[in-house]
Amino acid sequence: MNLEKMNIGAMIKYHRQLRNMTQSELCNGICSVTHLSKFENYNKEVNQETIMLLLDRLDISLESIQKATKSIAADLTKLLDAVLSYDKKRATECFKRVEEQREYITFSNYIARYHLYVYRYFLLVNDIENAEKEKEILRQIANSLSAQERELYEYLNALLQMFKGEYKPSLDVLLRLEANDLLPSNWKAELYYFIAFNFGNLKDSSSCVAYGLNALEEYSRTFNYLRILHTQFLLGIAYTDLGLYDNAEEQYQFIFKNMNLINAEELTSAMYNNYALLLEKTGNMEEAFEYYLHSMEHAKSDIEYLMSLCSYTELLITQGEKEKALRNISKILRETKTSATRKQHLTFKYYQYLLRDQKDKAMSYLEEEVLPYLDKLFFIEDYNKFALSLAKYYSAKNTDKALYYYKKIAER
């Protein structure tokens, strides 16, 4: 009987307690209570005949245990492959199969791998509540994790931070993990991708491109087509921010041509939103308006719709559409009350004051609320943009404050 991957003693104890049996009731006529106690609690060696008799009394099929030990590793591998491929449908199917074996996994040597992979799955499907639960479980068993498993745990914690909008602390951890080079090789492409993602959100577009190209190379090597599109999407945004509009256009056109071939409809809203930004940067305002509207129409979640509405409203502001912008801002402020949308809430509250001709109040809010938040979370480009507005405002009122903000901009 090849059960070296299973803690049979702990499993027998679990099922005995589940059936409200005492040790005496279970071992009567099979072995001594002392022998059973040592087996249950310390997995002391017991001969095969004794194990068979105990399992039979518990009405547990040895065949089912042996079958489970063979399939657990394979099913966990399939789950991870689906998650890293960003195949949510397949990942959910694999997750359900794994959960069917949870009882056996609990008593196996795969328990850490199970919690790590399930943690990553919950992040994939944006189930933050359950991801937090897995994080806590892993924290409790951290001392039993191998060096590589601890690196994966830190990696997943960094992703959780990122999904909460904490880009700088997340990036710091990911860069350290890259330097350590202990993550399994099949996680490397994703590591590069999320480093690029964090750099992109922090508006370090050059670094975003560098890591994005690394991710693209890794994903191309494994023919991970959906992730290739995701990475090109990141590159399109970064190239736009860098003013490399032809490069950005090339990325977007490739995505438009291929996204329907691999059922990447979930990219549609974000694609339209960011392509609209490229059009805006190149002066095609009418087309930009159209693509922002397309983005909102194709949004598959409230947050996608909200991000597109924010972009659309900023364009309305720059084009002098004051009343339309104010109507949108009222909706934005109602919908941006979570920590993940704190930046949008602060930004559009500032815009609301400006559009209502409350400039002094707007600048006070900018100084006391918006800039400290942007500074704390290292939104450098946004900070510099608003700090410049504040410096200009103070130029005629308070020279020292104006110089202070000009200096802060120069330091970045």
UniProtKB/TrEMBL annotation:
Show the InterPro entries listed in the entry. Cro/C1-type_HTH, Lambda_DNA-bd_dom_sf, TPR-like_helical_dom_sf
Any single GO molecular-function term of the entry would be:
DNA binding
The organism's superkingdom is given as Bacteria
Ranges for domain HTH cro/C1-type: 12-65
Signal peptide boundaries = none
> What is this protein called in UniProt?
XRE family transcriptional regulator
Species of provenance: Siminovitchia acidinfaciens
